[in-house]
Amino acid sequence: LLFLSETGGKDRRSGLILTIPLCLEQTSMDELSVTLDYLLSIPSEKCKARGFTVIVDGRKSQWNVVKTVVLMLQNVVPAEVSLVCVVKPDEFWDKKVTHFCFWKEKDRLGFEVILVSANKLTRYIEPCQLTEDFGGTLTYDHMDWLNKRLVFEKFTKESTSLLDELALINNGSDKGTQQERERSIDLNFLPSVDPETVLQTGHELLSELQQRRFNGSDGGVSWSPMDDELLAQPQVMKLLDSLREQYTRYQEVCRQRSKRTQLEEIQQKVMQVVNWLEGPGSEQLRTQWGIGDSIRASQALQQKHEEIESQHSEWFAVYVELNQQIAALLNAGDEEDLVELKALQQQLSDVCYRQASQLEFRQNLLQAALEFHSVAQDLSQQLDGLLGMLCVDVAPADGASIQQTLKLLEEKLKSVDLGLQGLREKGQSLLDQISNQASWAYGKDVTIENKENVDHIQGVMEDMQLRKQRCEDMVDVRRLKMLQMVQLFKCEEDAAQAVEWLSELLDALLKTHIRLGDDAQETKVLLEKHRKFVDVAQSTYDYGRQLLQATVVLCQSLRCTSRSSGDTLPRLNRVWKQFTVTSEERVHRLETAVAFHSTAEKILQECPEQPEAFNEVEQFDEIEAVGKSLLDRLTVPVVYPDGSEQYFGSPSDMASAAEHIREKMKLVSLKKQQLRQPEATTPES
């Protein structure tokens, strides 16, 4: 029964030929009846009006089966059948035919039945309308026809069902209200089959029909009326046209639905972003108001803020994506959606920008707090270092080290001043930012929190100011002490220098002040110079004494003992006593020399005519005594209080001075002799 088919051939009346091949196996009449009904439903009414010629191939069957099939045709298609050709086998059923003659039953059957051999079938049907099985030339591939028919049936069924579904969907989308339209679309939105697949199947089928091609074994092409009549090419074209129309409407419905769905999804996502930012996101910022009381605390708050920013970044990424989607919809959207899209975009942008501004403000505030605490810590360390330096007792070796230490103190104090100024600037900047914190507090009263932050900042600055003031006071005291120490070292150095000067004066007195003068006038000049020289030495000694007294006062003020004044004062007194003794000896010699020269010059200047002036022998004796005394002093060393001795000049210098005095004594002695000669000659005469 699988091969029961309409081959596409036609009889001489242009009626279609129906072939019923029978086999040795039992034939189910019910299946045969159903198959005949199906085959007879394929041709058009016009074709049916021309009648059918039925070929019952009984060559491989039994007579009773053939008879049953012929009688069944009476019940199934009596009006459409005009001729039934029973192809008999080579060994015919002669006896059986005698029992039943088809030609006698023509009126009762409604169609003519003839028994014919296969090779005699061409008497009734043209060979070109018969297949090779019956000696004809008609090319027919039953499996190819069956496959095409199955494709056609499937296409017809699917396209018809799809058209109904698409019509329902499309008609539902044309309802009045948006709510009714959406409800209808929701219930019947997705078709049971893919429209694209059905359309593709229909186009492929139509292409096959239009090419009039059968896939026979020889691959050839033959004309067949089945292309137009049996496979109903116009029906396929009509279905395709209807499908395309409904599918176009369906695509528009889907586009509108997709746009509405996309808009609803965007609106839902926008509200999710807005609700989170205005809800949990804002609550996170509300709970973060502190600035920390140290670097570590500020860093911990910054880390916490970074975690909050990380959570916000995920929602900001959603915002960027939504903004791009909204922009795309705005560029390609309908007029009715523009207002709603712009409102969503504006709402989303306002909330995101406001939240981003709050995050940035909080980050800047924490960064300013961190910088403030960093400057405060640096300043605290500088103050600690300065205080440590001030708490260490100063024990410098000399004035230069004191000056260096004093310079270091001044530099540290200047650095502290700059640090405190920087702290004030950072603190004021931080206070200004805190004062603006209320502008994004969402109505939350942050006065208490801000007051704590402000009190902390002001407290830090005031504490640093007090510490700096205490250090300044200590620096002033240390500066005064160090300046006094500088003065102390200076006084000690100057006092030692005074001792050196006085020693040099003493040395000069002994080595260069040795001349006694050639006459009374010169000796008086030397005596006057010596007094001035003594005045210089006296001033040097007094200067040294004053410096040593100042050293004592400074040591008492500094509550320390001088390391050099105790040695300098005895040295100064010892040198001064030596100088005094030497000076007195020098004065005594000069005064003696003045007396000697004055008397000698007076004697030597007297005229011989006035002898009465020299009657006194005592004058000559006196000058001789003075001269001898002076000569004796030149040979005697200066004896100091400590028992040490020191000579004026060198021995040669003393010898030269003594020689000059002796010469003058000789002149006086000669003068004495001259004056005495007249006295000796007068009595003799």
Question: Can you give a write-up of this model?
Answer:
Residues 1-142 form the CRAL-TRIO domain. Belongs to the SOLO family. It comes from Gymnorhina tibicen (Australian magpie). This protein is mainly alpha-helical and 685 residues long. It folds into 4 domains: 5-139, CRAL-TRIO lipid binding domain (Phosphatidylinositol Transfer Protein Sec14p, 3-Layer(aba) Sandwich), CATH 3.40.525; 141-168 and 195-212 and 224-269; 286-477, Methane Monooxygenase Hydroxylase, Chain G, domain 1; 513-676, Methane Monooxygenase Hydroxylase, Chain G, domain 1 (Up-down Bundle), CATH 1.20.58. Helix content is 71%, strand content 5%. It has 17 helices and 7 strands. It has helices at 29-40, 45-49, 63-76, 94-99, 106-109, 142-173, 178-187, 195-211, 233-287, 295-332, 335-391, 399-435, 447-511, 520-558, 565-605, 617-635, 651-684, and strands at 5-10, 16-21, 52-57, 81-87, 112-116, 638-639, 645-646. The protein has a 5-stranded mixed β-sheet. The protein has a two-stranded antiparallel sheet with strand order 6-7. Helix 14 (520-558) packs antiparallel against helix 15 (565-605). The protein is rod-shaped, with a radius of gyration of 74 Å. The N and C termini lie far apart (223 Å).
